[in-house]
Specification:
8 helices; 12% strand; elongated; alpha+beta; 2 domains
């Protein structure tokens, strides 16, 4: 069972997923602590998980988890503009989002459909990290608007930023992926 600040693995439903980097390539992976399912943030949206050992061997690496280092993102700060929450906010919920989507939740679903499981997991990790930090509304605004580039303003829909992040975490957890991105057993 995972804590409230952790994201549960969509494959096994047992362990938390965490960000890691492959030491030699700096490729960022999302890995389940329990079943070793791994998703590459550099993979296409249609890519499912691979077994960590299999994925590392395919890259010519043979030392298992010794080939990985914890990503600084999982321990210190939310994602950058190129991963997870940054992709959702800057790439989908940008300043023109109302012209692209009927509602903010339509924009979130477009992110899920367009980016795939690795980015959805990264966004979930970012949201859980922000929620667990206990930041005030001004600090959350700085992260979402100034650092990650969103044009969406939750108070305009009657939410505090914290409330919206909490709802976003639920939406990302329940998000429907198109059949091509569903995980293979």
């Amino acid at each position: 069972m995972t804590s409230t600040a952790e994201v549960e693995c969509p494959r096994c439903g047992q362990g938390p997923v965490r960000r890691f980097r492959v030491v030699v390539s700096q490729e960022e992976l999302i890995v389940c602590d329990e079943c070793d399912a791994a998703w590459s943030l550099g993979a296409s949206a249609s890519a499912g998980f691979v077994d960590l050992e299999t994925g590392l061997r395919a890259r010519g690496l043979k030392k298992g988890r010794d080939e990985l280092t914890k990503s600084s993102l999982s321990a210190q700060e939310p994602g950058t503009s190129t991963t997870g929450l940054g992709v959702l906010l800057g790439g989908y919920l940008h300043q023109d989002w109302p012209y692209d989507y009927g509602t903010v939740w339509d924009g979130v679903q477009a992110f899920v459909t367009g980016e795939g499981m690795a980015q959805v997991l990264a966004a979930r990790l970012d949201v859980r990290w922000l929620i667990s930090r206990g930041l005030n509304e001004n600090a959350l605004r700085t992260v979402l608007v100034d650092e990650l580039g969103t044009g969406y303003w939750p108070p305009g829909d009657g939410y505090t930023i914290f409330e919206w992040l909490d709802r976003l975490a639920v939406r990302l957890r329940e998000a429907e992926l198109p059949p091509t991105t569903l995980l293979q057993a």
